[in-house]
Amino acid sequence: MRKNWLLAVGLAVVLAIVGLTGCSPGTTVLGEVESININNQQEGIWVTGTGKVSIVPDIVTLRLGIEAQEASVAEAQSKAAEAMKKVVDALTEKGVADKDIQTQYFSIHQVTRWDNVKQEEIVVGYRVNNIVAAKIRDIDKTGAIIDAVAEAGGDLTRINSIAFSVDDPSDYYEEAREKAMADAEAKAKQLARLGGVTMGKPTYISEGIQAPPPIYPVRLPEAAPAVTPISLGEMEISLTVQVVYAILN
Questions:
Q1: What confidence score (pLDDT) does residue 192 get?
Q2: What are residue 29's DSSP bridge partners?
Q3: Which of 65, 141, 159, 192 has the most Cβ atoms closer than 10 angstroms to its Cβ?
């Protein structure tokens, strides 16, 4: 009885192995040892190329606004609205088009302080913030526009940042893309030579994320007898490409 039971178990194991062999591609049985061949390794020469182009910006974007605080919401909002109107009028008088002035942020917040006697926060006023982005296309007027805005808004004026960009960067990105592909090819050729293989054509190409132009903070002087100086300098457009080249041997 025991021999018959062992024979049945052995037969079941053999049938299970044969079944697995017939249903699983890439599985072989060598004698009595089962071998599964799984190869997930990525083939080819993987490289990342970088392309950079230096350009002179032709657009300046100012992020500016008004901050007003009063005892009531109505007073704070009225004061902020009046000051913002003067700021917008100053922008348009300096040649900034209405389409290039866009509201980006507006808020009304309670202003509180801690009362040691009552041991609680008490409301002392309300603060209104109104921020717009102004795109300046005549960049030579940037300093004069900053001065005009500061004068129009007075002590309520806030200038948060200045950004430099180009109106149409497509040609520069094409140049940066060509440089990135050339950089990737040079790296792949070196790797192929060092690895003792022959490099084939690309089998995969992917472009990386293009970084936005840098934004720089601006601090207005308390007194500005002359036009605020703005140095444009140069900015850099950079992009990356990932390329996979085939290995021929």
A1: 95
A2: 34
A3: 65
Residue 21 · residue 27 · CB < 8 Å:
yes
> What would the two tokens of residue 106 be?
């507006």
**Under CATH, domain 45-55+170-212+239-247 is a member of which superfamily?**
Protein of unknown function (DUF541), domain 1 (3.30.110.170)
The domains of the chain are located at 2-36, 45-55+170-212+239-247, 59-165
What is the rounded CA–CA span in Å between residue 12 and residue 239? 61
Residue pair 26/218 in contact (Cβ under 8 Å)? The answer is: no
Predicted pLDDT of residue 235: 83
Give the residue ranges of DSSP H helices in the chain.
2-23, 73-93, 142-153, 170-195
Banded model confidence at residue 11, pLDDT cuts 50, 70, 90: very low
Cα–Cα dist 42/40, whole Å: 6
Kindly report the CATH class assigned to 59-165.
alpha beta
Q: Quick check: 130 and 66 in contact, CB under 8 A?
A: yes
* pLDDT one-digit tens code per residue, 50-70: 999 998 888 999 999 999 999
